[in-house]
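Pasting two entries for a bug report.
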Amino acid sequence: LVPDRWYIAVIDENLQLEQTIPVTNQAGTDTGIDVFFVHPTVLTQNSIPENIAIADQSDFLIAGTIIAQGGLLAKYGRMFAPRYRQSTGVTYREETDKALQASVIANSYSDVKAAFLNYLTNYNNGNKIILAGHSQGSFLLAMLLRDVFDNNEELSSKLLTAALGGMGYVYAADGQ
């Protein structure tokens, strides 16, 4: 196995390793493309709508999720994945009080937006951008698209794609 590559293990019907598919890891290489990945909810707390402080979140679970879900995008270039005050899954339920829901999600979004603006100011260096996320991460990135990208033609021209999986809707500008 080569150190600068990741591998996808293909397992056969007997649960034996059938083959490995190498994927070049360019997460540390400035290819002219950056990936800004926002991970999904990885919380075990889920009884009330609230934000969980970053210090109270599992580094292991978050790192594993970033690698498992966002890691393949590292073949395109540098990866940036912010930590944020996650909202518990209960926050997104239909029956959750809307004022409380909005407040909790706004806290999560403020962390993601601040991280993105910091990335843009200090690390982007004019590179193209791929936004990617899953579940809560996708929801927060959809907010970022509306808030930061929609009315900024220069920034919008840097956006290669927004891969927003695990959402209940698709975000697109009118007519697209």
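Entry 2 (this is the one that rendered wrong in the viewer):
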Amino acid sequence: APTDATVLITGESGTGKELVANELYQRSNRSGKPFIKLNCAAIPAELLESELFGYEDGAFTGARRAGKAGIFELANQGVILLDEIGDMPMPLQSKLLRVLQSRTLRRIGGSTSIHLDIRLLAATNKDLPAEVRAGRFREDLYYRLNVVPIPLPPLRERKEDIPLLAGFFCRQFGRKYGR
């Protein structure tokens, strides 16, 4: 947590990937600075690039007059969580790779580079090595993201955690409902 290393959190849906990302942020040297989360699967592919990198005035039809900062720019000095990164379209993966390598970005339609000081956390429920083999995820991006891997096994593989979790939830709901 106290480093700036890129972390890839993997596991099935419901294993707590976002909870781990929140802990990494809270325990990092960047705690208190921006922490922006983006679900890559929830945004249409056509809009994802502008959400990530922002755009300048007149970059495309319907663009705001003043342009818009993307999440990388908004998270500068802080942390970004790219959730469900395994669902990112291939053309955008190469643009993300370039930003991660150079630590600079250029807004869509822009001509100036913006220097970035960010920490990246990524999460996915997909088997990225299998996605790489199938040609659906860039191998070089996978290795750029997988600096510190944190695999989260499902609860069915961690049965020893059930009593601890049951006790936690019983206490939490007991306080809430006065029981």
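Dev reply: Rendering is fixed now. As a check, the viewer should reflect this: The first helix runs from residue 17 to 26.
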